[in-house]
């Protein structure tokens, strides 16, 4: 029941029924607001009283304690952190604590804090003993016989120990590689590091857009946070014709909100990076539109070995080799299966004798890395940034050898600058292989010149997004989406511009049927057989972006036409 206010009632004169209704509505709103304020005040007063008399321990500034670990996977996992935290500010029951490992500051509640019962130096040496002696030195049969819990608990503990042993083994392996191989280093003049987050200026994003507008080759890598198990960082390294390049770190957990101009600029930058026709190299399982270097590497490595009887096919031998000859290069390969995926670290070791540091693999990548805004220590910042950018550099280093089919000797003797630059022509606004919006009369007058210019279109010709839409006369109610490509007889199927429509069908009704299946609502079609151009009339210019991805460049080639006919006979 709503308690009325204590103010004296006022006298009102109602001249019509609506006056009474409006006044009653205002009175009810005032009573409801008063009741809400009273409830909120009572709740805050009770909370202050409870916090003042709560039984939780009170911690002092610079006092050490442990934090509760949320989201445990098994009963044997530790409930509290092994490394103590330090209180740097308090407002009981809320505390601000600092991590002694990476100086990260966190706000916590007193319910998640636990005092250290042992002296700190005793706790520290106990922690070192348990993690390094019991789990690494003690034999597995002794460890398994040291407790008699249920089988499920034993299996869970065994998996946790196996993970720990694996991490220790990888760390020792990384240290061994570091001692035996040269570090993989790139001159700082080769690149510029740019952090993209909510604090990045619009001028910086504009500079990146101008840089990536004329490029189509990149290497990309990603990092996931081990605690939240989510993608947190994307590294993009440009491969320009002339250095220096840009290595861009997209910090996904700190991007601007969607209602800001900076977000729109970032969206435009991503459209440039992932537009159709770009060649993006990555090491690992990526989208099918990207060039996954890890799948092409085993085949290239087996063919790039030095000339010997084991590594090269028999038909390539020109001399008879003795029967006691043995190959030394293939024995050094860590993988017996030719199709097995290589780790990026092993790929750098076996191809160029370089050491790629992987010590920062298991890190909290959701934190800000930009030195101007990060709460990490300077050492931790440099270590993580170095790890992130050099993973992308390694992919760039290897892509040229695989892309140009270099041998190991050619790769090791190549100049570093040639491996980090592209000799392919950049995107140019003079090219016309992309779909453009043109006036009908302009299109009819330019049929001949358009078809001639597309005969020699490069593989990855493209236009900047700013020039995709041209001014259209207000007198016209329709826009024409023009896509064309002159027929390439006898050429390689991979050599084609972005978004071409290869016209190999002469029957317009079949074209209409295919376009309808793509759910493209057009006004009319016009096919010019002489210039191999199909024009698609749309009702609104806003529909162009919607239908742009529904008409792939190879939609009307012979292969996809046969697939369409088979699908048609099967279901119709």
Protein architecture, described:
The protein has 572 residues and is of the alpha+beta class. The protein folds into 4 domains: 13-53; 64-134, SH3 type barrels, CATH 2.30.30; 188-419, 2-Layer Sandwich (Nucleotidyltransferase, domain 5), CATH 3.30.420.10; 436-571, no CATH class. Helices cover 37% and strands 15% of the residues. It is built from 16 helices and 17 strands. The chain has helices at 17-53, 120-134, 140-144, 151-180, 202-212, 261-273, 293-303, 344-352, 378-403, 408-413, 416-419, 440-445, 447-454, 508-517, 543-548, 558-571; strands spanning 64-67, 85-91, 94-99, 105-109, 113-115, 182-183, 191-196, 217-225, 230-238, 245-251, 279-282, 291-292, 354-355, 436-438, 479-484, 524-528, 533-538. It has a 6-stranded mixed β-sheet, with helices on both faces. A 5-stranded antiparallel β-sheet has the order 4-3-2-1-5, with no helix packed on it. Strands 14-15-17-16 form a 4-stranded antiparallel β-sheet. A hairpin with a 4-residue loop joins strand 8 (217-225) and strand 9. Helix 5 (202-212) packs parallel to helix 6 (261-273) and helix 7 crosses helix 9. The longest helix has 37 residues, at 17-53. Residues 44-54, 152-161 have a biased composition (Basic and acidic residues). Residues 32-54, 148-170 are annotated as: Disordered.
